[in-house]
Amino acid sequence: MRIAIGSDHAGFELKELLRERLIERGHRVRDFGPSAPDPTDYADIAAPLAEAVVDGQQQLGIVICSNGVGVSIAANKVRGARAALCTDPWSARRAREHTDCNVLALGSYVTGHALAGEIVDAFVDAEFEGGRHVRRLAKLAAVESKHADVLEEGVRRRTEVELSPMA
Q1: Which of 9, 27, 65, 101 is catalytic?
Q2: Global pTM?
Q3: Mean pLDDT for back-to-back runs of 10 residues, the chain (167 residues)
C-alpha cells in the first residue's frame, strides 16, 4: 500500500518510528517531513499530505503533532480528506470501516509508541465496509460541498478587505 506520513516537530520522533514500522510491513511510504525535529508548522505538512491522498498519489495518510488536533484540522480542510484523530486501535479500525477515513491523526505527546503502532496497524489493515455507510458519506459530501462555497466567499471577502488600500 502507498502510505503518506508526516508530522510537525512534536511528532517527528513518532513519525520516524512509524515510518520504519510501515516499511518493515512492506508498505511504500512517502515521507512529507520534516527531515529533522526543527520547528515545523503542522499545516505545512498535513495539508499537502492530505492533498496527495485525495488526488490518489497515496492511498492513506498519517499525520502527527503533539495532540493530533492541529494536523487533523489541517488535513480536514482539504476537500475529500477524511482525517480521524484516533487514540485506540478500535477507533482507528472503525474510522476506516464505517467512515472510509483516508488520513489518520495521532498525538505524539498523548499516545505511547507501542500503542501508536497498534493504532496504525488497525487503520492500515481495515477496509471500508460500504453498504449503509455509503449513504452517510454522501450526506457528509453534501455538507462539505455546501460549506465549501460559503468558505470560498468568506476567504474572497477577507482577502479583498486585507488588500484594500483603506484597510
Answers
A1: 65
A2: 0.87
A3: 98 98 98 97 98 98 98 96 98 97 98 98 94 83 76 54 50
